[in-house]
Amino acid sequence: MGLLDNILGSVMNNNGAEGGTNPLLGMAMQMLNGQGEGGGLSGLIAQFKQGGLGNLADSWVGTGENLPVSAEQISQVIGSGKIGEIASQLGISQDMVSGGLAKILPDLINHVTPDGQVPQSNDLIQNALAMFLKR
Predict the structure, then answer these.
(1) C-alpha distances in angstroms, 7 versus 2, 10, 105, 124?
(2) What's the confidence (pLDDT) of residue 73?
(3) What is the pLDDT of residues 72-117, one digit of tens each?
(4) Greater confidence, 16 or 131?
(5) Which residues touch 60 (CB under 8 Å, ≥6 apart)?
(6) Cα angle 55, 69, 1; round to 5
(7) pLDDT score at 89
(8) What's the DSSP call for residue 53?
(9) Which DSSP symbol is given to 62?
């Protein structure tokens, strides 16, 4: 079990998970992959910048240390409507969703941007996400 799985295990259990993959991790990957609303990785980074938290997102994309994000900041940027939708789909509280995403997103975004650049191709993001699941 990887570090991210350990962190997620402390935030929530794996109800409904297939193959041991945390369902919240799957939702986060969908957000970065551009599935659903939000415009994928670039759109999510733009949301952080519009919310005045671009420095956080920039640290995750860059090659330096990742700055932490709080559950409240996640809710502010992503919006309570989207957080509520995810919570409803997963059958968990909104606090668990925003707290879990606060732990997942920095590492996940960091992993799909190893060169400090947002990939322009969705295929590159998909490949990086697939490699993330293998580690």
Answers:
(1) 9, 5, 12, 26
(2) 97
(3) 999 999 999 999 999 999 999 999 999 999 999 999 999 888 888 8
(4) 131
(5) 66, 67, 105, 106, 109, 110, 113
(6) 125
(7) 93
(8) -
(9) S
Residue in the block written with tokens 């995403």: 101
The helix, strand and coil proportions of the chain, stated in percent and rounded to the nearest 5, come to 65, 0, 35
Name the amino acid, one letter, at 131.
M
Host H or E run for residue 11: helix 3-11
Tell me what the pLDDT averaged over the chain comes to: 81
Report yes or no: 51 and 77 within 8 Å, Cβ to Cβ: yes
Q: Do the Cβ atoms of 43 and 127 come closer than 8 Å?
A: no
Residue-wise pLDDT tens digits, 27-66: 888 888 875 445 788 889 999 999 999 999 999 999 999 9
Nearest to 118 by CA among 22, 54, 69: 54
Q: What CA–CA distances, in Å, run from 96 to 73, 78, 120?
A: 14, 14, 31
If you search the block for the tokens 């509280």, which residue do you land on?
93
